[in-house]
Design a protein that fits this description.
By secondary structure, the protein is of the alpha/beta class. Helices cover 35% and strands 15% of the residues. α3 links the parallel β1 and β2.
């Protein structure tokens, strides 16, 4: 056998071996494909032909199936929703006012109220007001309907108005705060707000002060904006003592031992966005337009107690100041800690409005700091990020 013949035999042998390897590879791929196919078919089989437990779960509560009539509860309006300490800022602007905030778990909502022709309208500005958006239509009536469902009168629960369950089925004792921002004259608005709350008041749904202690109800009403402090504390104007004040947080600063004077905020604080509580003087009718915590109020922080106030609030931009290089300074941290300490020492809930909203990571950083320092409520526009997301993690270029 010559060298040429030997070379040909080796080539034939190599080609045969390659074909065997290819066939083996194809076989392995086909085998793996069949395994995957059977796995998919098995999953589809469970979906379309469920086993016993899945059949029960899929049909539970339906007519003719196990659990018929047991799928719902009388008070399951908010079943599965956990309340969280956030405030739905400018709640009326949302696609679905009130309900969106409750669905997110917010325990506080805000309505800007204007008085015209003896009616209370809700909106951010005069240009945004419409005849059908009133305090009653957007908030009072829906809240009344929700609370009536949460407090049914049955043979097991004959005194529904006495138990007073709140809007959250998971935590029925949690009160929902209705923050009413008085946009027009507080003196003229106040008696109309008192009257508008009567449907909730008559059913014992409102938090009130009985002269000795606070009696918690499903709804806590707090007046901000041009709400006059002297009317909140008046036994004749606020005879039921069920409208509380949004006190000025900046007056309550308490420092560490040895510190008697609060640090100064960064000068010329910028306006971070539309999160502004004070009324536009050009749109205020018959009011001094001083804004949150300043209408006929006191500069003495001892005037604000749980008997007349609920929140203690201030503009973050004005009271804390501009955040330089994305980091709060030691002086700014002292301000925040002193504000929170002073408010909570009086039994009030500390809240900042006009928080930075951009960049997102700066907003998240401020949220994270405020929560860690013990602020009682986050003032938020983005309900989803505030209640569902881990915003302690930075998410942008900042």
């Amino acid at each position: 056998m010559n060298d040429h013949e030997i070379s040909d035999d080796k080539a034939v042998w190599a080609r045969g071996r390659s074909r065997k390897c290819l066939r083996l590879g194809r076989g392995v791929l086909v085998f793996l494909g069949l395994i995957q196919l059977f796995s998919v078919l098995g999953g589809l089989l469970i979906v379309f032909v469920p086993d016993g437990i899945h059949r029960i779960l899929d049909k539970w509560g339906q007519i003719g199936h196990i659990g018929e009539g047991l799928a719902t509860w009388p008070t399951d309006f908010s079943r599965g929703i956990l309340p969280v300490p956030c405030h739905s800022h400018n709640d009326y602007w949302r696609l679905v006012p009130l309900y969106s905030a409750i669905e997110a778990g917010c325990i506080s909502i805000e309505a800007d109220v204007w008085l015209f022709n003896e009616e209370l309208y809700v909106g951010h500005s005069l240009a945004s007001l419409t005849p059908n958006r009133t305090l009653a239509s957007l908030y009072i009536n829906p809240l009344l309907e929700i609370l009536q469902k949460q407090n049914p009168t049955t043979s097991f629960h004959p005194n529904g108005n006495i138990t007073r369950h709140g809007v959250f089925d998971t935590v029925p004792e949690q009160s929902l705060t209705l923050l009413i921002d008085f946009k027009t004259s507080g003196t003229l608005l106040f008696p109309h707000v008192v009257s508008a709350l009567e449907p909730l008041r008559s059913r014992n749904y409102l938090t009130r002060y009985d002269g000795k202690k606070v009696i918690n109800g499903p709804i806590t009403v707090v007046g901000t904006g041009n709400t006059p402090f002297n009317l909140v504390t008046s036994e004749s104007a606020n005879s039921h003592a069920d409208i509380f004040f949004d006190a000025p947080l900046e007056t309550m600063w308490e420092g560490a031992p040895g510190k008697k004077t609060p640090p100064r905020p960064h000068p010329e604080p910028p306006v971070y966005g539309a999160d502004i509580e004070a009324s536009n003087p050009e749109e205020v009718t018959g009011s001094n337009g001083l804004g949150q915590g300043k209408s006929n109020s006191s500069t003495d922080p001892s005037a604000y107690t749980t008997a007349n106030s609920f929140y203690a609030s201030v503009s973050f931009a004005q009271a804390v100041g501009h955040i330089q290089r994305g980091q709060l300074s030691d002086e700014q941290m002292d301000l925040i800690r002193g504000h929170i300490k002073g408010a909570q020492g009086r039994g009030l809930k500390a809240r900042y409005w006009e928080l930075p909203f951009w960049p997102i990571s700066l907003r998240n950083y401020v949220w994270d700091v405020l929560v860690k320092e013990g602020v009682d409520l986050l003032n938020v526009d983005d309900l989803k990020d505030a209640t569902k997301r881990d915003w302690s993690v930075k998410h942008s270029w900042w």
